[in-house]
């Protein structure tokens, strides 16, 4: 399982309400970890496959959020650097990396 925790920050100009948060996990080989690679979101850079989606109720204040991406049985994760990107409303709102040895 891959777990990513973040804080969605206060943004007074954003419209409050239900928001869809998307997590994209990119392997060292450049592949997207996803149950269905054909499932995409539209981003500022065009269509993007994603690993996980979660709905939140955003009220223009900080909200802590953890997302969990389960790895299918039999899938071996490569050693190396992974990239995690987080999207909301077509924009990348966060990015981080981690390394598996």
The secondary structure category is mainly beta
Q: Over all CA atoms, what is the radius of gyration?
A: 14 Å
First-last Cα distance: 15 Å
Which strand order do you get reading across the main beta sheet? 5-2-7-8
- Count of alpha/pi helices: 0
Shape annotation: globular
| Number of E strands | 8
Residues in β-strands, percent: over 45%
- Report the helical percentage: under 10%
Report what the structure shows:
The chain has 101 residues and is mostly beta strands. The protein is built from no helices and eight strands. It has strands spanning 2-8, 17-26, 40-43, 46-49, 52-58, 63-69, 80-88, 91-100. A four-stranded antiparallel beta sheet has the order 5-2-7-8, with no helix packed on it. It has a two-stranded antiparallel sheet with strand order 1-6. Strands 3-4 form a two-stranded antiparallel ribbon. The two termini are 15 Å apart. The protein is globular.
Please write out the topology.
Elements: E1 2-8, E2 17-26, E3 40-43, E4 46-49, E5 52-58, E6 63-69, E7 80-88, E8 91-100
Antiparallel strand pairs: 1-6, 2-5, 2-7, 3-4, 7-8
């Amino acid at each position: 399982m891959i777990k990513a925790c973040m804080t969605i920050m206060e943004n007074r100009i954003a419209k409050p309400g239900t928001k869809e948060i998307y997590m994209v996990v990119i392997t060292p080989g450049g592949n997207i970890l996803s149950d269905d690679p054909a499932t995409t979101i539209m981003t500022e850079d065009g269509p993007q496959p994603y690993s996980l989606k979660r709905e939140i109720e955003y009220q223009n204040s900080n909200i802590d959020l953890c997302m969990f991406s389960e790895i299918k049985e039999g899938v071996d994760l490569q050693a190396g650097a992974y990239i995690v990107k987080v999207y909301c409303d077509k924009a990348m709102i966060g990015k981080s990396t981690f390394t598996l040895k």
